[in-house]
Prior knowledge:
Its EC number is 2.1.1.63. This protein has 175 residues and is α+β, with helices and mostly antiparallel strands. Helices cover 35% and strands 11% of the residues. The chain has two domains: 2-56; 72-161, Arc Repressor Mutant, subunit A. The radius of gyration is 16 Å and the shape is globular.
Amino acid sequence: xxxxxxxxxxxxxxxxxxxxxxxxxxxxxxxxxxxxxxxxxxxxxxxxxxxxxxxxxxxxxxxxxxxxxxxxxxxxxxxxxxxxxxxxxxxxxxxxxxxxxxxxxxxxxxxxxxxxxxxxxxxxxxxxxxxxxxxxxxxxxxxxxxxxxxxxxxxxxxxxxxxxxxxxxxxxxxx
Length: 175
């Protein structure tokens, strides 16, 4: 596994992306410099930076990058793959709806437990952006996003990019 940095217009700044022979294994909105070796594979660097750049500029709706799912397993992977396959660009799903779609929580009877668990799973999504956890919202609003206030700003930015939210006066994304 090796890391590369992708400069972005996101409120969080650059993305840090881990790649393996299988694909993208992790994306972080916060720095991880020095944890792993830097990626030197020019074709991987070009594909990742190019596609993320095009997506964030509004010129691409699908990132079409291979995903290395090795950092998730069991029910977490099932929920992430359900999100990946069933919630397209410009759409959202609530935490509870994603829980139901995944089938993982069929035996859970406590109201709200499945939705809260999905929220925790989204916070632990190793391949954020590729598996679009920003598209998972609360039943009564935008919901949370890892990284506190900056995380919520990133979520709003991405949902505005995808047309889910109307641009605000301070919108700095593509028109």
